[in-house]
Structures are given as structure tokens and as C-alpha cells.
Design brief:
This protein is an alpha/beta fold. The protein has 3 domains: 2-186, Rossmann fold, CATH 3.40.50; 246-366, Cytidine Deaminase, domain 2; 398-511, Cytidine Deaminase, domain 2 (3-Layer(aba) Sandwich). The chain is built from 20 helices and 21 strands.
Length: 519
């Protein structure tokens, strides 16, 4: 029996080679692996003695030869295959142990393009795939973590077919991931090279930007980070996976305190952090069931939190709070006046962190990054929906009424629309002095959303809607509560009815030209 060993990582390979020798295998190897084994006293046949051909092109070509792949791929139960091996004087190779050049590790080191190209393994994946295809006759080890189990299994009396199949599966997972990492790197390099290049406008075709975002074929590489306590409900299982090669604030945060994050916790923290990250000034967002129940600005983290709390002191109980400023002691003291489930912020003072930790079950999260602003993915049975993130707030602010909002009202309208953008459709936000006093989200019609938001706010200055008004009923309801200005996308066939009603009632109305449906 012959075993071909060619590894970049030498961990455990000496023990494996000694075991194989004891079991009657001859060791074939090349390059650094061969030197390593021979220095340890392991007799090794060189690859070129098997192929009858020297390594060439600085080692780029050494195992890509029929004497190697024929020995791996020949089916032992196929008479014609075995006769061909005998005719061509090719020996069978019964075990392949290969781990690949560490392309991803080298990518993180910031090597040049030319240097990284040399860490794209060709012979290694080829041998692994050949052995995995013929797993019934060939053992294939693709990672040092497999060596110990292999030695135990090989020494047992068990039928090893299922185990060999598992080893083959691991190969195809590994090579798919490896190729995907190279693909992603080359795509990013290509996009970087095309920056500043303006292609001619096309009609009825995807733009270059669209082609970059939405390619005909995509490969997603998911690596399990950890299992969750449960999914959306206790009877559902759940896990969190990282998208390999993609940065994101939900993979880089630090948890300082509290039990492990669950499925809903991830969703709620993401919602809170996205909202507050949209503001430069101190901002706090309170989240309940993945929708905001209070959002407010302030001169400090404490004031922003207190004002967000005042928006809906009932719903915030047991909720998730996000702040875009350092949480200091004063802010932490205010937070502990209400039972909160999670607090997330970019940083905490030492005193604030110690105080918050006094609450046994409070989850404390330190966010390390802002939202990436790339694409969002959501699963759909049998597929995935991908879209650009909703980054823009408006196309053009256009006053469409006789009454013109003051500068203060315009700033208030923009604040309300930012909150509205992150609220489930149908969404209405009523605000005053930089606080979302009433948030109506997730309603199946606009008038019910408006009535909830207005009634909850009791008073307000501005109203924002995530979509246009097909009827003037929302305008009339807003007037009953003293609303002075309204912001909405515009675009209904009946826009004029709402505009006229605003003119009749002395309300300013601003169109944004962009809608923000959120489902």
C-alpha cells in the first residue's frame, strides 16, 4: 500500500507517518514534507521517483501527473482499470494526506497580488478531489484534526465505507470554501481596478454596479460561530453562522455580561444599532419585537436615553436599548431604573460597566463597527433574496404646499423620516423636539398606523410616513392632533387631494421622492 503525504501544516504528520509505516504503507512525499519526514527518520519515496519527471516551475508542477492521479483514481474492482495500471506500470495510491496552501491566512497578512497568487494551491486540491471521488478505495485526509480519528478507525474492525464517505465530504466542503475565497478576492481586486472607470450608459441592461452586486452565480461560505439557546421560539433550534470573508458589526461585537445571545437578541441588537448609527448627534433607540418603540436625540447619552424612555415607558420594559455614544455612569444609572434585557453601545466607562454588571441577567454589548452598507440577505424557502441596503433617506426634499416648514420643522421632519425608515410598514412616526413620541409600525393600513402613532404621542409637531398617501384621511387625522408638517415620499395618483387638504388646514407637506417600505 502507498500513502502520498504533502502538507503545509506539519502538525501531527510525523505521528501519522509512523502509524502508516507500522500498518505496511510506503510513504511518498515531496518538497518540504519529504525533508521533514526524512529528518525524523521516516523513509520516503520522492514524488519524482514515482512520476519519472522532476518538479518544475518552482514547484508549481510536481504531482500533476498520470502516475499520481492514475494511482489514486483507478477503481480497484474494475478489471480494465487495474489492467491499465499494470500496463502503464502505475502503482495504486491508497491514502492521500494533503492540506492546502494557507491562502486565507496569507490574505489577512496584506501580501501583494503577485505574492498571493503563489499561495493558490493547484496540485493539492486536485489530489484531494481525485481521492474524494474514489473514496471507496482511497482514504483522504484533508486536515490535521482528522489524523487521530483515522488511526483509531483504521485500527478497528469496523466497516469503514461510511467513514471514508465522511472524509470525502469534508474534502469537497474544504475545496469549495477554498475556491470561493479565491473567487471573492479576485472579484474584489477586479472591482478595485475598475474604480473611476465610467462605462457608457446602456438601455435595458444591468449597470456595471448591478453586475458587481448581483452576479449570475454567487458562492456563500458559511462557518458556524455557535449554537443558540434556541431559535425564534423555545421549540425551534438555531445557530449563528458567519459569512466568511464578509465584515459585519454583528460578527465583531464584544459581549461583556449576561447569558448567551439568542436568535431574537441578534435581530433586536441589529435593529437598535442600525438606527442609532444613522445619527451623528447622541441618539438612543429602544427596540421591542424588532421594531422601535422609542427613539430620541439628546445632548448626552443619558439625555438621549431618558428621552427615548419617555417616548414609551411601558414598551421599553424588558426591551433592547442602543446608544451611539459612550455610556457613562450617569447614563448607566438611568438605565438601571427600568428592567432592560440588552444594552448596546460603542463603549462604556469602567464605572458604568461595573454598575450595569450588577444586573445579573442584563446582556451588555460593545459594538465595534458601524453598519457596512453593503447588501442584505434573507432566506426564502429554496432560495435567498438579496438587495442593497436602504442607505439613502431622500432623493430631493420638495415642499408641495403653500405653507413652508421652518428650518426647525424641516430638521424635525428629517429626524422623523430617519426613524420611519427603520420601522415596519405601514409606518407612521410622530415626533417633537427630536423624540419619536408616537411610532405606528406593522399595520396593514396607513390610517390605523397614523391613529396609533398620533394617539400614543398625544401631541407632536411633525409626522413622517414611509409611503405616499392615497387619501387625505391621514392629513385630517394629523390636523386633529395639531401636526404642523408632514413628510412622505409622494407618488400617489391622488397626491393633489392630500396637498389640497394640507393647504386648507395650514399644514406643510414635503415630498422626499423615496419610499422606505420595511417588511
Amino acid at each position: 500500500m502507498n500513502a502520498l503525504i504533502s502538507v503545509f501544516k506539519k502538525d501531527g504528520v510525523l505521528e501519522l507517518a509512523q502509524f502508516l509505516m507500522e500498518k505496511g504503507f510506503n510513504i511518498i512525499s515531496s518538497g518540504g514534507t519529504a525533508r521533514f519526514l526524512m529528518e525524523a527518520g521516516i523513509p520516503v519515496r520522492s514524488v519524482d521517483s514515482v512520476t519519472g519527471f522532476p518538479e518544475i516551475l518552482d514547484g508549481r508542477v510536481k504531482t500533476l501527473h498520470p502516475n499520481v492521479h492514475g494511482g489514486i483514481l483507478a477503481r480497484r474492482d474494475d478489471k480494465a482499470h487495474m489492467e491499465t495500471l499494470a500496463l502503464e506500470k502505475i502503482e495504486t495510491i491508497d491514502l492521500v494526506c494533503v492540506n492546502l496552501y494557507p491562502f486565507e491566512e496569507k490574505l489577512k497578512e496584506g501580501l501583494s497580488f503577485a505574492e498571493l497568487i503563489e499561495f493558490i494551491d493547484i496540485g493539492g486540491p486536485s489530489m484531494l478531489r481525485s481521492a474524494a471521488k474514489n473514496f471507496k478505495d482511497v482514504f483522504v485526509l484533508s486536515d490535521p484534526s482528522q489524523y487521530q480519528t483515522f488511526m483509531e478507525m483504521f485500527s478497528s474492525d469496523r466497516d469503514l465505507f461510511a467513514y471514508q464517505k465522511e472524509l470525502a465530504l469534508a474534502v469537497f466542503e474544504k475545496t469549495a470554501h477554498y475556491d470561493g475565497a479565491i473567487l471573492k478576492w479576485l472579484q474584489e481586486e477586479s472591482q478595485e481596478n475598475q474604480k473611476g472607470y465610467n462605462e457608457p450608459e446602456t438601455i435595458g441592461q444591468e449597470t456595471s454596479k448591478d453586475q458587481e452586486l448581483f452576479q449570475e452565480e454567487m458562492t456563500l461560505h458559511l462557518k458556524k460561530s455557535h449554537d443558540l439557546r434556541y431559535g425564534e421560539n423555545p421549540h425551534q433550534k438555531g445557530s449563528f453562522y458567519r459569512v466568511e470573508g464578509k465584515a459585519g458589526f454583528m460578527t465583531s461585537f464584544v459581549q461583556h455580561h449576561g447569558k448567551a445571545m439568542g436568535y431574537i437578541n441578534f435581530k433586536d441588537v441589529e435593529a437598535a444599532w442600525r438606527i442609532v448609527s444613522d445619527f451623528e448627534e447622541p441618539c438612543c433607540a429602544a427596540i421591542k419585537h424588532n421594531t422601535p418603540c422609542g427613539v430620541a436625540l439628546g445632548k448626552s447619552a443619558q439625555e438621549a436615553y431618558q428621552r427615548a424612555h419617555a417616548c414609551d415607558p411601558i414598551s421599553i420594559f424588558g426591551g433592547i436599548v442602543g446608544v451611539n455614544q459612550i455610556v457613562d455612569l450617569a447614563c448607566a444609572e438611568s438605565m438601571l431604573e427600568t428592567m432592560l434585557h440588552i444594552v448596546c453601545a460603542p463603549a462604556y466607562t469602567e464605572e458604568a460597566l461595573d454598575l450595569l454588571k450588577s444586573k445579573k441577567n442584563l446582556i451588555i454589548i460593545e459594538m465595534k463597527e458601524k453598519p457596512s452598507g453593503g447588501t442584505t440577505l434573507i432566506s426564502s424557502d429554496g432560495g435567498i433574496l438579496i438587495q442593497e441596503e436602504d442607505r439613502a433617506l431622500f432623493d430631493e426634499l420638495r415642499v408641495v404646499t403653500k405653507t413652508v416648514p421652518s428650518d426647525e420643522e424641516m430638521a424635525e421632519l428629517i429626524f422623523a423620516m430617519k426613524v420611519c425608515k427603520f420601522t415596519k410598514s405601514n409606518a407612521i412616526v410622530v415626533s417633537k423636539d427630536g423624540a419619536a413620541l408616537g411610532i405606528g409600525g406593522g399595520y396593514v393600513n396607513r390610517i390605523d398606523a397614523a391613529r396609533y402613532a398620533l394617539d400614543h404621542a398625544k401631541t407632536g409637531r411633525c409626522l413622517a410616513s414611509d409611503a405616499f398617501f392615497p387619501f387625505p384621511d391621514v392629513v385630517e387625522e394629523a390636523h386633529r392632533y395639531g401636526i404642523k408638517a408632514i413628510i412622505q415620499p409622494g407618488g400617489s395618483l391622488k397626491d393633489e387631494e392630500s396637498i389640497k387638504r394640507c393647504d386648507d388646514l395650514g399644514i406643510a407637506m414635503v415630498f422626499t421622492g423615496l419610499r422606505h417600505f420595511r417588511h
